[in-house]
Design brief:
single chain; 4 helices; 7 strands
Length: 137
């Protein structure tokens, strides 16, 4: 199975999660400005809410994907206040015909003193276990 991991982060929280996911599935965690050049069965996409939506860089990355090169997107991320970006990611992916797995990983992320130390070691371990489960199934 070919797997890619891409992420967008402003605080470093999602990068840490992406590195845990990538390590668990034998891939390299790269920022969303690294295009998907070779076909992949699974694209783990890490992101978060910024101003109540996904960042324009994430939106543009999804729109740049070739549906013939990406089998499925698996969403993951962290946020201090809002929860899942799943609906926003799925809405963009639907526009280009790439399915999004209904399962995702989300945890709290530290921001301006909220949720200090998150994602923590337990969060990173949980992200890695989530990714391994996705790949096994």
């Amino acid at each position: 199975m070919n797997i890619a991991v891409r992420y967008y982060t402003k605080t470093g929280n999602t990068k840490r999660l992406a590195e845990a996911v990538a390590g668990a599935v034998g891939a390299q965690a790269l920022p969303v400005d690294s295009p998907i050049e070779d076909p992949v069965d699974l694209l783990f996409l890490g992101n978060s809410y910024y101003a109540f939506s996904i960042d324009p860089e994430v939106r543009n990355f999804i729109r740049s994907l070739d549906r013939n090169k990406v089998g499925k997107i698996v969403n993951f991320g962290s946020a201090a206040m809002l929860n899942s970006t799943y609906k926003k990611v799925k809405a963009e992916a639907d526009k280009i015909g790439i399915p999004v797995d209904e399962r995702e990983f989300h945890c709290r992320g530290e921001f301006k003193g909220l949720h200090k130390g998150r994602p923590n070691g337990e969060d990173l371990k949980a992200a890695a276990e989530f990714a391994k489960k996705i790949v096994r199934e």
